[in-house]
Amino acid sequence: MTNLDLNTVTWRKSSYSGDDGGECIEVAPGFPGLVPVRDSKDPSGPALVFPAAAWQSFVAGVRAGDFPDFPAGC
């Protein structure tokens, strides 16, 4: 995989995130076929990069309630 420079991207906070500082994530759009993800509470920390298809499957599972222990605030 090519190294991605994520220092200058615009991160988008999860629509499930509240303003209470919960356990939430941010994603960086604009990477064809990839979805960079980071912890919104640690913006200078590491980011994980997922294949877009895997990320879409995960999001579909969250929306379908497949992860009952997923934090309610996110």
Question: Could you characterize the architecture of this molecule?
Answer:
With 74 residues, the protein is of the alpha+beta class. The protein has a domain at 24-64. The chain has one helix spanning 52-64, and strands at 12-13, 25-27, 34-39, 47-51. The chain has a four-stranded antiparallel β-sheet. A hairpin with a 7-residue loop joins strand 3 (34-39) and strand 4 (47-51). The longest helix has 13 residues, at 52-64. It starts with 11 loop residues before the first strand and ends in a 10-residue tail after the last helix. It comes from Kitasatospora indigofera. Residues 10-63 form the DUF397 domain.
Shape: globular
Q: Which strands sit side by side, in order, in the main sheet?
A: 1-2-3-4
Distance, first to last CA: 29 Å
Strand content: 15-25%
Number of strands: 4
* Radius of gyration over C-alpha positions, nearest whole angstrom: 13 Å
Largest sheet entry = 4 strands, antiparallel
The whole-number mean of residue pLDDT values reads: 83
Count of helical regions: 1
Main structural class: alpha+beta
* Low-pLDDT residue intervals, each spanning 5 or more residues: none
Helix proportion range: 10-25%
Order of helix and strand elements from N to C terminus? EEEEH
Protein name: DUF397 domain-containing protein
Domain DUF397: 10-63
Pfam families: DUF397
InterPro entries: DUF397 (IPR007278)
